[in-house]
Amino acid sequence: MEETDPEGRVVLKDSSNFQLKAAYLAYLEAYDKTTDQEAKRYLNQIMIDLQYNRINYETFYRNINKFRQIDSAQCQSKSDIRSSSKSEWRAKMERMEREKRHRRK
């Protein structure tokens, strides 16, 4: 039987493995947000399977994502990136330098 804390969550055995620790934090987030006991048993099982290398990380995250709620602000930050072409950037920098030189006089 796997070791659990008083609230029924699986206890992480190897905290030196960064990937496992990150997965464990995702597991805790999902476990704490759900109230369904069957879902909690399922989350415990996939965390145990990951610790004993019965499943890989890709499978773990695919299974746990059903129970996680990702904030829309985390996903939106990727769409705000704007870029310009090299020639546009160069023209903008040249214009700024030219304006800087002429202000000094």
**Overall spatial form:** rod-shaped
Averaging pLDDT over every residue, what do you get?
A: 83
Order of helices and strands: HHHHH
Please provide the count of β strands: 0
Helix content: 55-70%
Q: How much strand?
A: under 5%
| Main pleated sheet | none
What Rg do the Cα atoms give? 24 Å
- So how many helices? 5
Helix-strand makeup class: mainly alpha
The end-to-end span amounts to 81 Å
Query: pLDDT under 50 segments (min length 5)?
Result: none
Report on the architecture of this protein.
With 105 residues, the chain is mainly alpha-helical. It has a domain of 70 residues. Helices cover 60% and strands 0% of the residues. The relative contact order is 0.10.
Question: Could you outline the blueprint of secondary structure elements for this entry?
Answer:
Blueprint: H1 18-33, H2 37-51, H3 57-64, H4 72-76, H5 86-104
Helix pairs in contact: 1-2, 1-3, 2-3
